[in-house]
Specification:
Blueprint lengths: L1 E8 L3 H12 L4 E5 L6 H5 L1 H19 L13 H12 L2 H11 L3 E4 L2 E5 L2 E4 L2 E10 L3 E3 L13 H4 L8 E5 L3 H13 L2 E6 L10 H13 L3 E4 L3 E7 L2 E6 L4 E4 L1 E4 L3 E3 L6 H4 L3 E2 L2 E2 L12 E3 L12 H15 L14 E3 L4 E6 L3 H4 L4 E7 L4 H4 L7 E7 L5 E8 L2 H13 L4 H5 L17
Parallel strand pairs: 1-2, 1-6, 2-3, 6-18, 8-9, 8-14, 9-10
Antiparallel strand pairs: 4-5, 5-6, 7-15, 11-12, 12-13, 16-17, 19-20, 20-23, 21-22, 22-23
Helix pairs in contact: 1-10, 3-4, 3-7
């Protein structure tokens, strides 16, 4: 029987980070993968989505400059774009697996099941380890309605070789809005159903409303306080019956109502690892209810966002913990998040509306459309909401809506994490004219 210091179940970014760091410390490490090596993000998640979004972003930039130097707005050629996307994803599994092998990490292909707290079985072969790290990620949840077998998920969307004329998305989270924006910009008629009036829960409501308004202008049809009651095949199309009344006819229907942790088949309940429908339960050292078994990433029940950089951060933390480099609990820095839409919506730090009611905080929403950074590209909608602590003068939160929201929010994230006051920012000289050179004017 093969024995290891650490076996990691799952080869996504979090599992990979832990594996490489532990191997670098001289630990004997194995990684088990039941699906695609590299996990969701590079194969059928953030990376391929960003490739598709890149075409949308380029088209948007040219559309803003129509009659300001450009005569026409190009159309997106979906088959060509998908072929380009494949150049990024096709080799990922083999490259990710080979990278582990080159680092001296054993790769095991198959689905792992725990025999006991120190032993797993994969393809009828037993493997032992002193510690385990569960990094199994999550998958799309499917709405339990009649005809649910007709739902597609983000995985199918990101592999479509032809663009449907009409698409219905069910769900009002970031995945649904991002894919709806890509489809709409590429030429599809898009309908989005959401069960209440508040999409993008957790994002600033005012900025969210601005984004939804802009997407409506672009042609996305929003149906709030509405969901799918059933789906039936109608010729080559699908009839989506709505929960209130009426129906929609579409060529494809995608479900993006949330994601669920991949815990089935691991036999966790038999060995005493606690979990619920939201994920595996861990303490502040990412330790499960069984002392030698840890977990990270999207398969956790946790309050922090389930994002790729966080999984990688947790993987690096666990490598330090298990190699004896530290003993302290995990501490997360302030975490930014973003919707890659038209325009982008990004946020970091304090945003809870109840907390912001405290008189301690100063809020200001700034229209940036007349600032040179944005005006030279003729951006029609670009705003920033800045939240500062009146006592310390420190930036504590920000929300940005605009084409450069990702760049600006990263700078705000750095300022919050490093506790930079406005005076400290003013001591720096930035390239001009850039997003960075505007920092001293925000607060």
């Amino acid at each position: 029987m093969d024995s290891f210091d650490t076996i990691i179940i799952g080869s996504g970014p979090g599992g990979m980070a832990a594996a490489y760091d532990l191997a670098a410390e001289g630990k004997k490490v194995a990684v088990v993968e039941a699906d695609l090596w590299g996990g969701t993000c590079p194969n059928r998640g953030c990376d391929p989505k960003k490739v598709l979004y890149g075409a949308v972003e380029a088209k948007d930039n040219l559309a803003q400059l129509k009659d300001q130097g450009f005569d026409t707005i190009p159309k997106i050629n979906w088959p060509e774009l998908m072929a380009f996307k494949e150049t990024f994803t096709q080799a990922v599994p083999s490259e990710q697996k080979q990278g582990l092998i080159s680092a001296g990490i054993q790769t095991i292909t198959g689905k792992a099941t725990f025999k006991d707290s120190h032993t797993i079985i994969v393809e009828n072969q037993e493997y032992q380890a002193s510690q385990f790290i569960l990094a199994t990620g999550q998958r799309s949840a499917i709405l339990d309605i009649p005809g649910k077998e007709h739902f597609g998920t983000s995985t199918e969307f990101l592999s479509m070789t032809e663009l449907p004329e009409t698409i219905v998305f069910v769900g009002g989270g970031y995945i649904s809005l991002e894919l709806a924006n890509i489809a709409n910009s590429s030429g599809s008629e898009v309908h989005l159903l959401h069960h209440n009036e508040r999409p993008l829960k957790g994002f600033d409501q005012g900025m969210t409303n601005e984004l939804i308004g802009n997407l409506k202008k672009r042609g996305v049809h929003f149906h709030f306080n509405e969901s799918a009651a059933s789906i039936s095949k109608q010729g080559a199309q699908y009839r989506v019956a709505l929960t209130s009344q009426g129906s929609l006819l579409a060529d494809r229907v995608f479900c993006a109502t949330g994601r669920i942790p991949n815990v089935e088949g691991l036999n966790l309940e038999a060995i005493g690892v606690a979990f619920n429908r939201k994920g595996i339960i861990v303490n502040d050292h990412l330790q499960t209810t069984i002392a030698n078994i840890y977990a990270l990433g999207d398969c956790l029940q946790k309050n922090t966002p389930k994002l790729t950089p966080i999984a990688s951060f947790e993987g690096s933390y666990l490598a330090k913990l298990l190699s004896g480099k530290l003993e302290t609990a995990i501490h997360y820095p302030v975490i930014p998040t973003i919707i890659f839409s038209s325009p982008k919506l990004a946020q970091v730090g304090l945003a809870d509306e109840a907390m912001l009611a405290d008189d301690r905080y100063k809020q200001q929403t700034i229209d940036l459309s007349q600032w040179f950074t944005y005006k030279h590209l003729n951006e029609p909608l670009v705003k920033a909401k800045i939240i500062t602590d009146k006592v310390t003068g420190l930036l504590v939160g920000a929300t940005v809506l605009g084409n450069e929201a990702d760049q600006l929010i990263n700078l705000f994230t750095m300022m919050i994490n490093q506790h930079l006051t406005a005076s400290k920012v003013n001591e720096m000289i930035m390239l001009y004219p850039t997003v960075s050179s505007d920092l001293s004017y925000f607060y």
